[in-house]
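Q: what sequence does this backbone want?
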């Protein structure tokens, strides 16, 4: 329970800021309380597994109500339009209920592998999978995935605390993904270590990219995971006195049967900040990084794959500063978090680290991760150190550019 509460508090403090901002714009206090109650009700219902199917019904009722009012006002065209639209959504919702919730549908083919894609195209091709097929991973895919988990868990970490990924084959209580039955649970020490959280994001992102290469669907799940159900399924693999669940990743075969709400939900997360809002040359985040000039242009699409890196609720909470020496030589790329979130922001930083590292390796540019002191990052005004965005880690070049 403590683990779940800590992550829920982190969500409300950090990535829940959008919802809080919306509530603050509501002028009347009692309306704001009603809206807040609706948000809390949504959070309770989402773990029942029915929210994806109930939400379209709200629009059906609303359209039917408008159509009824239009009929009473003798606006027959509007009445017919709204009633037909409501009927169409109702039919789609029933179809989703039958095919997705109750799984009465035709069998689906296994997806093809993505061995023909280079690293950058592979990362751009990856999308969060919100609906999975009902079949389990084949033995071949399972063993290849577990080998990826082993390899990336044993890699050199940025921090010193141990992290691990536990496999669960069970229908955990998660939101908004449907029909997921296989998961990787990211676990770090209970005593908070920010580098351990960053390492979780970095290692799990590499596993996700291996899974994408295999043709598997994956979905990062942070605040949408019910830790009670996770801990129950982990059994003696989880020690509440020593372990902390950071996030989970659903993995399996993507299904073409996706509830209409999740299709709309997915569409909202396809947008990304422009590169001009993500990469800078000063710690004050005022001077934009010119990606087309030397030596920065050597990193090519590495900027792009960081731009499209996944983050909780697509918050895009990571920023990067190119750090140069006095003679103009490039020294490092410094990664910052823009929110005070203790878990989801550093996970996002770790994902950026993985994408940047893999991109540079693909381009033949060598470097390593390190924590640089204030002076090593060329920061003179210490106010930028204590205020957000918060510095986390740097990728230091092993050669002069």
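A:
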């Amino acid at each position: 329970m403590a683990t779940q509460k800590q992550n829920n508090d982190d969500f409300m403090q950090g990535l829940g800021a959008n919802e809080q901002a919306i509530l603050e714009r509501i002028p009347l206090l009692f309306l704001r309380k009603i809206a807040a109650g609706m948000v809390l009700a949504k959070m309770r219902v989402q773990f029942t597994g029915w929210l994806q199917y109930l939400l379209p019904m709200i629009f059906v009722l609303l359209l039917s109500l408008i159509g009824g009012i239009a009929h009473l006002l003798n606006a027959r065209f509007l009445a017919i339009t709204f009633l037909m639209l409501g009927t169409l959504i109702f039919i789609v919702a029933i179809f989703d209920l039958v095919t997705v919730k109750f799984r009465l549908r035709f069998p689906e083919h296994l997806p093809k592998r993505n061995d023909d894609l280079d690293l950058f195209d592979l990362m751009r091709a990856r999308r969060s999978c919100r609906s999975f097929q009902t079949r389990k991973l084949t033995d071949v895919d399972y063993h290849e995935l577990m080998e990826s988990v082993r390899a990336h868990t044993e890699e050199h970490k940025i921090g010193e605390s141990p992290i691990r990924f536990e496999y669960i084959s069970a229908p955990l209580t998660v939101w908004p993904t449907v029909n997921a039955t296989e998961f990787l649970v990211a676990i770090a020490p209970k005593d908070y270590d920010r580098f351990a959280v960053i390492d979780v994001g970095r290692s799990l992102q590499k596993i996700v990219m291996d899974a994408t290469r295999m043709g598997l669907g994956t979905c990062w799940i942070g605040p949408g995971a019910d830790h009670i159900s996770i801990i129950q399924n982990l059994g003696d693999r989880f020690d509440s006195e020593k372990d902390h669940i950071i996030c989970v990743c659903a993995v399996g075969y993507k299904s073409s049967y996706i509830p209409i709400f999740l299709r709309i939900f997915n569409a909202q997360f396809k947008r990304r900040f422009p590169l001009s809002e993500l990469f800078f040359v000063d710690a004050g985040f005022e001077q934009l990084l010119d990606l087309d000039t030397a030596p920065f242009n050597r990193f090519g699409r590495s900027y792009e794959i960081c731009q499209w890196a996944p983050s909780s609720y697509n918050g895009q909470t990571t920023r990067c500063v190119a750090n140069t020496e006095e003679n103009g030589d490039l020294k490092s790329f410094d990664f910052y978090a823009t929110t005070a979130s203790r878990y989801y922001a550093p996970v996002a930083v770790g994902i950026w680290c993985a994408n940047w590292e893999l991109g540079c390796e693909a381009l033949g540019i060598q470097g390593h991760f390190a924590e640089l002191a204030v002076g090593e990052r060329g920061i003179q005004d210490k106010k930028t150190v204590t205020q957000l965005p918060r510095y986390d880690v740097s990728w230091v070049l092993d050669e002069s550019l």
